[in-house]
Design brief:
Blueprint: H1 2-18, E1 23-24, H2 26-33, H3 37-50, E2 53-56, E3 72-75, H4 77-83
Antiparallel strand pairs: 1-3, 2-3
Helix pairs in contact: 1-3
Length: about 100
């Protein structure tokens, strides 16, 4: 299970890193990573909890009305560290969601 989740997380982070503006909604992310929504949503919650991904709500006057209410996901600074091949234990502590490395 761990390795499968790790591969899926890598696919999500890579897709977000290659996206224009480095952010995507869930429908586009599912399409690009070829993950089912049933697998993608829990994974995004996990990545957000770990601090690898952040979300933001699009502005109410967004041009694309079909995607107006969907949150946009983007790679956090800590997530960029992981995408570029850094190890979680060597990331600067300011990037950790809690502000410090776990023991």
């Amino acid at each position: 299970m761990f390795w499968r989740r790790r591969r899926m997380a890598r696919r999500v982070l890579d897709a977000l890193a290659k996206a224009p503006g480095h952010e995507m909604d869930t429908a586009t992310l599912a399409e690009r990573t070829e993950l089912r929504p049933a697998s993608l949503y829990p994974l995004l919650v996990h990545l957000r909890h770990r601090g690898w991904v952040t979300t933001r709500q699009p502005s109410p006057d967004a041009a694309d009305t079909a995607r107006r209410g969907r949150p946009l996901y983007q790679v956090s600074p800590y997530g960029w560290w992981i995408v570029r091949g850094g190890k979680a234990s060597t990331a600067p502590s300011a990037w950790w969601p809690t502000g410090r490395r776990p023991a």
